[in-house]
Write a structure and sequence with these properties.
Layout (H helix, E strand, L loop, with lengths): L2 H27 L6 H5 L6 H8 L2 H24 L3 H18 L20 H14 L8 H9 L1
Length: 153
């Protein structure tokens, strides 16, 4: 990659990381936050799983914990450029699970949304962008991964 391409991927990594980190922090700091509302509106192929989660309080608490701290860990990894590929692929998988719960397909009632979507929405775009970040070297030279790599040599 040339410098402009590399720097663009680095900026993309950092801003998506910030978004994910902030989402996790807000969930952590919001008293009583739960994924119950999101999961109760699930439609499509993960509806059965979402319904199972929300009908078992202990499972819901584990999902909420993993979701919150997963977002924070993924966001920190992306912002800091630490374990970037793992963070990017984990983030892509997590965000894609959100998409699979409420995709913008004709005939599905998704509740209030910002904008008008058909098949492709911001969630899917962010998941694909995270996959791209995982495929390209976006923590070199700006990220802690590059420092770790230098230490190993």
């Amino acid at each position: 990659m040339n410098a402009i391409q590399r720097n663009t991927v680095i900026v993309l990594r950092i801003i998506i990381g910030w978004h994910i980190l902030y989402e996790g922090i807000v969930k952590l700091l919001t008293p009583g936050w739960s994924s119950f509302g999101f999961l109760s509106h699930s439609q499509w192929i993960l509806t059965g799983f979402a319904n199972w989660v929300i009908t078992h309080d202990g499972v819901l608490q584990v999902v909420d914990f993993l979701n919150t701290w997963g977002l924070i860990a993924i966001g920190l990894g992306l912002v800091l450029g630490l374990f970037t590929r793992v963070a990017a692929f984990a983030g892509a998988a997590l965000i894609f699970v959100y998409y699979l719960n409420n995709p913008p397909f004709v005939g599905l009632e998704t509740g209030p949304v910002e904008g008008n979507y058909l098949i492709v929405n911001k969630t899917l775009i962010e998941a694909v962008a995270l996959f791209l970040i995982g495929v390209f070297p976006s923590s070199v030279p700006f990220g802690l991964d590059s420092l770790i790599k230098k230490q190993r040599k």
